[in-house]
Amino acid sequence: MSTTKKIAGAALAAALGVTTLSACGGGDANDKTAGASDAPKSKTVTLVSHDSFNVTDSVLKEFEQQSGYTVKRLKSGDAGTALNQEILTKGSPRGDVFFGVDNTLLSRALDNGIFTPYQVKGMDGIKTEFMLDPQHRVTPIDSGDVCVNYDKQYFADKKIAPPQTLDDLIKPEYKNLLVTENAATSSPGLGFLLASVGKYGEDGWKDYWSKLKANGVEVVDGWEQAYNERFSGSAGGKKAKGDRPLVVSYASSPPVEVLYGEPQPAEAPTGVSTGTCFRQVEFAGLLNGAKNPEGGKALLDFLVSKKFQEDMPLQMFVNPVVKDAQLPEIFTKHGVVIDKPENVTPDAIAKNREQWVKAWSSLVVK
């Protein structure tokens, strides 16, 4: 889920998802596939991720001091791009742990065998609804909702009620207002496509997108361009003179606009169309062929620790998956809880994702 710290980083530049830390996981039969058992023990562990991964320096330093490992971070673009690179280097990965594959792309990662199983310490503390891989090749780290965001000032000035549902987006009053990401190249773009599949089903989603296209939806490559260049409601979009008051982003995007506003506003300048959402869950896993599997296991344990889970919301603007992790006030005050996001089962996504994306591309992009 590329959700996230990209928003905060862009905000700054534009001014705009328990356990004790341990040195390593328990040894098991997977060590041979994860790395040579007789290799010298490395004190560096490499985390490969999409560009949105972030952690407070002091929190990461505490892990490094307690575990004895130094974490090297290797960011690799958007979620889809990062995953593609790991598939291409399968068996000889660029790092030890991969973070950022979500439920929209999970089957692709698992089918390509890029992970080796590992059960993290503290697994009992993770909410069961996020445990989508019974073989423990990946561990859930965060969740978030892909939703349409709207520019409150635009709709107030025009005296038009902002859209709240997918059905609203095809109405004439919202013509030429929405920008979304390419479902073939972007995680939120794919999430928005899946929201339409969940809402309208296999027999109806194509007709919906035909209407959305006729109503002037704009498609760009990724979230960064959509949110920070084309969307009129974000700080980055205002600087770039974006003219689209509707954008596919996240339910957690409004707190970012508050946190990094200069001056900080009392209320978020953007809102969330709560009837347009699809829930994403992001995972991390130990890469098959990792040079430092023991360090990788320790890092995975850290990612589900309460310390990291409570740091994560204001670093990546996603929700914790650990039961007792608390959200910061600015997150709960200005974020939106989505009670009934659209849903597509992991099995359905695995079976149909490629053909859905191909059909969507032919219909909307070409």
Short description:
By secondary structure, this protein is an alpha/beta fold. The chain has helices at 5-14, 31-34, 57-67, 79-88, 106-111, 152-158, 187-200, 205-214, 223-230, 235-239, 253-259, 293-303, 306-311, 313-316, 329-334, 346-365; strands at residues 44-49, 70-75, 97-102, 115-116, 139-151, 178-181, 218-220, 246-250, 270-287, 319-320. The chain is built from 16 helices and 10 strands.
Q: State the order of secondary-structure elements, H for helix, E for strand.
A: HHEHEHEHEEHEHHEHHEHEHHHEHH
Tell me roughly what share of residues is in helical segments. 25-40%
Quaternary state of the chains: single chain
Report the mean per-residue pLDDT as an integer.
88
The general outline is globular
- Indicate the proportion of strand residues: 15-25%
Number of strands: 10
- Termini distance? 26 Å
How many helical elements? 16
Essential attributes:
38% helix, alpha/beta, 366 residues, 16 helices
Task: Characterise the protein shown here.
The protein is an alpha/beta fold and 366 residues long. It is built from 16 helices and ten strands. Strands 1, 2, 3, 4, 5, 6, 7, 8, 9 and 10 form a ten-stranded mixed sheet that branches. Helix 3 links the parallel strand 1 and strand 2. Helix 8 packs parallel to helix 16. It is globular, with a radius of gyration of 20 Å.
Secondary-structure topology with pairs:
Blueprint: H1 5-14, H2 31-34, E1 44-49, H3 57-67, E2 70-75, H4 79-88, E3 97-102, H5 106-111, E4 115-116, E5 139-151, H6 152-158, E6 178-181, H7 187-200, H8 205-214, E7 218-220, H9 223-230, H10 235-239, E8 246-250, H11 253-259, E9 270-287, H12 293-303, H13 306-311, H14 313-316, E10 319-320, H15 329-334, H16 346-365
Parallel strand pairs: 1-2, 1-3, 6-7, 6-8
Antiparallel strand pairs: 3-9, 4-9, 5-8, 5-9, 5-10
Helix pairs in contact: 8-16
